[in-house]
Write a structure and sequence with these properties.
37% of the residues lie in helices and 23% in strands. The protein is of the alpha/beta class and 336 residues long. A six-stranded mixed sheet has the order 3-2-1-4-5-6, sandwiched between helices. The mean pLDDT is 94.
Length: 336
């Protein structure tokens, strides 16, 4: 039975969720997929590059009981860390840098060049270096996977083309940001904008600084990722027209709701010849629109195909859903 050394860059809520899932599904991974694993590397800002090829105690790590590092032998950079951990799979779960995708891109390059599968929850590498990283993965006979970057564990990227062979995607639309959906829903219930943001933060959905969500950056990066991977267009992030929800008044959000309509931050992409027209903006939707019925942290996307339309809905996901996306990619990487 194969055993895989796992190393994780970034140890926030998503990485913790992944590790909890690996532990809880350890027996299932062995019985159904013949997969054994051990945690051999964790990299964080606070604790640095921690590696042990004999394995770290995952429960101790989850409880913030870290091994005492030896400064003389501790890794000093990503490559030393991967080599010291003898990693077969590297999970990249660091914070998003929407402008450049770094340092996540360098982390994934190092993993692939050193012979490890690279799995990321970080959208930056997909938007800024998809072609380069995909080519490198093929050259090294390894996998570069990123299912959890859009709609968490919903199988969007893995659905095409295997699940829908010979189907042409002509465009898509959706609500892809949980924070703005929660904020708009809570304002409809009577909360102020600030209280609605705090509610999203209490739910573990919004960051301490929710600007990337409220100003549409998170949605724009997701639109770019979908367009680059699924539509095959080398889109730049600044080509996505972007408007956030800050200019919507509380009174207007509540009044249209009482009239049977709702505001949602809607993502759109449509093919235009060899290019694609992409946008993120608040839209006033009729109650009959399926996107208008999304509550709380739910998200959805509709793909317009040449043969039919297809909608995928994720109902009120938590951070576990993102962790599951990483877990599913791990199974795909080592089994397919």
């Amino acid at each position: 039975m194969p055993s895989y050394n796992l190393a994780i860059v970034g140890f926030g809520n998503v990485a913790r969720s992944l590790l909890r899932l690996l532990i809880s599904k350890e027996t299932e991974l062995r019985r159904r997929y013949d997969i054994r694993w051990r945690l051999t590397g964790i990299a964080t800002r606070r604790n640095g590059w921690v590696a042990d090829p004999d394995g770290l105690n995952p429960l101790a790590v989850l409880n913030d009981h870290w091994p005492t590092p030896n400064p003389a032998s501790a890794p000093h950079n990503i490559r030393e860390w991967i080599e010291r951990a003898r990693a077969d799979v590297v999970f990249e779960a660091s914070s998003l840098n929407a402008a450049t995708g770094e340092p996540a891109i360098d982390h994934i390059k190092a993993a692939l060049e050193l012979g490890a599968h690279a799995i990321t929850a970080n959208k930056g590498p997909v938007v800024h270096a998809f072609a380069e990283l995909t080519a490198l993965a093929e050259e090294k006979d390894r996998r570069f996977l990123f299912e959890s970057t859009v709609m968490d564990g919903v199988p969007i990227f893995s659905l095409f083309p295997l699940g829908l062979p010979a189907a042409e995607i002509r465009g898509f639309s959706g609500v892809l940001n949980s924070t703005t959906n929660v904020v708009l829903t809570e304002i409809e219930k009577g909360r102020s904008f600030e209280d609605a943001i705090r509610r999203a933060q209490q739910m573990g959905i919004a960051e301490t600084d929710p600007s990337a969500d409220l100003d549409g950056w998170d949605s724009a990066v997701k639109v770019a990722a979908l367009a680059i991977v699924l539509l095959g267009v080398p889109l730049k992030l600044d080509q996505v027209r972007r408007t956030g929800i800050r200019d919507l008044s509380e009174e207007k959000i509540r009044s249209v709701r009482n009239s049977g309509m709702r505001y949602k931050l809607v993502c759109r992409a449509d093919r235009r010849g060899a290019g694609v027209d992409c946008s993120v903006a608040p839209e006033l939707l009729l109650a009959s629109d399926p996107l208008a019925n999304l509550e709380g942290s739910s998200s959805a996307v509709r793909f317009d195909l040449d043969v039919f339309g297809l909608s995928l809905v994720e109902h009120n996901p938590g951070v576990e859903a993102t962790g599951y996306g990483l877990l599913a990619d791990f199974i795909r990487a080592v089994r397919e």
